[in-house]
Please model this.
Amino acid sequence: MQEWGPGPEALRTPRAAGLAGVVFALLLAAMIVLVRLGLPEGADAASLQRAPSPGRHTALRTALELVPFAGIFFLWFIGAVRAHVGAVEDKFVATVFLGSGLVFTAMMFGAAATAGAVLVVAPRPGTLTPPAAWDFGRHLAYALMTDYAMRMAAVFVSSMSVIGHRLGVLPRWLTIVGFLSAVTLLFVSSNVPWAELVFPFWSLLLSLHILVVSHRDRARPAAG
Model:
């Protein structure tokens, strides 16, 4: 209705962008899983001197191919959230929300570029690559993904939860899940493997909520 904007065009945008948020959540989750499988975080020095299995190479290359699409859909997801909030959003929190989302995208691309460099220096069959080259790239990729990107994701999630709580545009259960997800991403993701999957899970919940609300608002005039 009015909080969505003046006309049917404004009603269609959040619905389409909400679908983009669902796609982003699925792509990001797939990318995280494939990176975890392709670049084992706890590989020892002996394994660094052996050629990675073809399965790991395939998993990592697939993850790298998903990153640009995940970034594109994430930008659409940001647009969906801002359209869902409407013109009554708090400018300060909205700026933090938008800025953290853009920095997260940059960190995600940086982690992907580093992982791609790791593939270039990976040991070839019958040869040895100095462990430092593989080890450095692997640690840098994980630092960008878990230490920096996920902490920006925590700011993104917490700012959205604050907006949802202040303006009442999100149900209470979703704001609680958001705050818990932000705490997990901020303090746990860098120490607990796979904890970064909390972010795509929260993104999926929020996108589905936007889709449900958009569908209700579209059906309401017809029902009345």
Summary: Confidence is low (pLDDT under 50) at residues 1-12. The chain has seven helices and no strands. Residues 107 and 148 are 7 Å apart (CA to CA). Helices lie at 8-38, 45-48, 54-85, 91-120, 131-167, 172-187, 198-223.
